[in-house]
Design goal:
This protein is α+β, with helices and mostly antiparallel strands. It folds into two domains: 276 residues, DD-peptidase/beta-lactamase superfamily (Beta-lactamase); 113 residues, Up-down Bundle (Methane Monooxygenase Hydroxylase, Chain G, domain 1). Strand 8 and strand 9 form a beta hairpin. Helix 7 crosses helix 12.
Length: 442
């Protein structure tokens, strides 16, 4: 089984065994993809038989997301058919995004390990598993392509979800309802006796808790795996513990470094942040996302969060939403928030902190060694990387990403999956290259 953590490169992870396809499934998918997804014509994403067959084929003795290839793509687009979801609601008028296609972006030449392509050629090729992508500049959609999905589908974004929690914390900071330099137990009294109790909210935000609770999907006795079981992300049975709150309240785990000194990626940190949000707002995490974000950004559709066990949302990686609504969320960090009637949703202080307030020493002294990289400024507030050109990036486990550049008023969103041989080109580098060619860094 693969370690799903994204340490220094959220776009690249080790491989897993392939899964075969039936000819009937290939023919069905091919017919669906023949239709221009951006034309507005509704195309049914699955046959009745395929839904039954896909769900019946889910492993009974292993985590469902270990299946790759075409099956993984189907799962990622159809999670609401497979598992319980915690709903995220929209409200008010839909803020339509004007379309101003930029041919120069689609045609930008990018170099990859598999050769040179235009951005559009790469995404359409067998070297890519991008299902959908949208780029928004100055409030208008300049590139939109859905080669392996329909625009109306709501795929999962995995760890891109993490920045929802940090954004809500930033909003609460703006309302002066939280001091991130105080211990998390200040806001979650049940954590007072936990190893997380004395860790400051800031250090949890920055993946600098210093605790030995790193992402781990092999050792089922590990801190992280035990947490993942309680939220239905690890393999579980009906008899498995199913209360993450109780598990973390009783957590006793060693430290690998003093808090605030070293980076170590863990979805448990994100769950703790979501718990802080729940305590301060007095509502479940998904409702806080609805209240403070989705109902205020002119979203096209409701979203949801994967919640397989007892309705507890996977705050660390469970968002399912339309591509264009994730783009709207990204726009909240840019001047284009005003085009959504949402200029006051995210405090400018949060944007400035993400851009300039991180501690680069955390990456230098990370749990994995020195993981600094050329052109990377820091990692902060759950964002994987903030680049020197002001690109803010959060990646998902299997080919998802959100890139925001407030200075350039630019947002890019993409979603994908792992091919059977995991030979696909990681899209972040080519995408940033294409964006740089068209919009520059100034």
């Amino acid at each position: 089984m693969a370690d799903r953590a994204s340490h220094s490169n959220p776009d690249t992870l080790p491989s897993l065994p392939p899964v075969g396809l039936t000819m009937r499934h290939l023919l069905y998918v091919s017919m669906c993809l023949f239709v221009n997804a951006a034309s507005g014509e509704f195309v049914s994403p699955s046959s009745v038989d395929e839904v039954r067959e896909r769900i019946s084929a889910l492993p009974q003795d292993e985590i469902w997301w270990t299946i790759e290839g075409d099956a993984m793509a189907w799962h990622f687009r159809n999670l609401p058919r497979m598992f319980p979801m915690a709903p995220i609601y929209r409200d008010g008028p839909v803020r339509e995004l004007p379309r101003r296609p930029k041919a120069a972006l689609a045609n930008a030449r990018v170099t990859t390990p598999s050769g040179e392509f235009s951005l559009r050629e790469l995404i359409d090729s067998t070297h890519s598993t991008v299902m959908g992508m949208m780029v928004v500049h100055d409030g208008a959609v300049v590139y939109e392509h859905y080669p392996r999905m329909q625009p109306h589908e709501k795929p999962i974004y995995w760890s891109v979800t993490k920045v929802l929690a940090s954004t809500l914390i930033g909003i609460l900071e703006g309302e002066e309802r939280i001091d991130v330099d105080k211990p998390v137990s200040t806001y979650v009294p049940r954590l007072a006796g936990s190893s997380y109790g004395p860790v400051t909210v800031r250090n949890v935000l920055d993946m600098a808790a210093g605790l030995n609770c790193l992402e781990e999907y092999e050792d089922k006795t590990s801190c992280y795996y035990r947490y993942s079981v309680t939220v239905g992300d690890g393999f579980y049975t009906a008899d498995s513990p199913g209360d993450p709150y109780a598990m973390l309240a009783a957590l006793e785990v060693s430290s690998f470094a003093p808090q605030g000194t070293a980076y170590a990626y863990s979805g448990v940190n994100t769950f703790v942040l979501a718990w802080v949000v729940e305590e301060i707002t007095g509502m479940p995490f998904q409702d806080a996302v609805s209240r403070y974000l989705w109902t205020r950004m002119g979203a096209h559709s409701d979203a949801a969060m994967l919640a397989p066990r007892f309705g507890v949302p996977n705050a660390h990686g469970g968002l399912v939403a339309r591509v264009e609504d994730v783009a709207r969320f990204g726009m909240l960090f840019t001047p284009s928030a005003a085009d959504l009637g949402a200029a006051d949703v995210i405090p400018q202080a949060l944007v400035e902190h993400v851009l300039h307030g991180g501690n680069p020493d955390l990456l230098e002294h990370s749990r994995y060694g020195d993981i600094r990289a050329p052109g990377v400024r820091h990692a902060v507030y759950q964002w994987d990387r903030v680049f020197d050109n002001d690109d803010m990036f959060k990646g998902g486990w299997a080919g998802q990403g959100l890139l925001v550049n407030p200075r350039l008023n630019l947002v890019a969103v993409y979603t994908g999956y792992f091919g059977e041989a995991r030979k696909e080109v990681a899209i972040l580098g080519p995408l940033r290259s294409a964006l740089g060619q068209v919009y520059g860094d100034d």
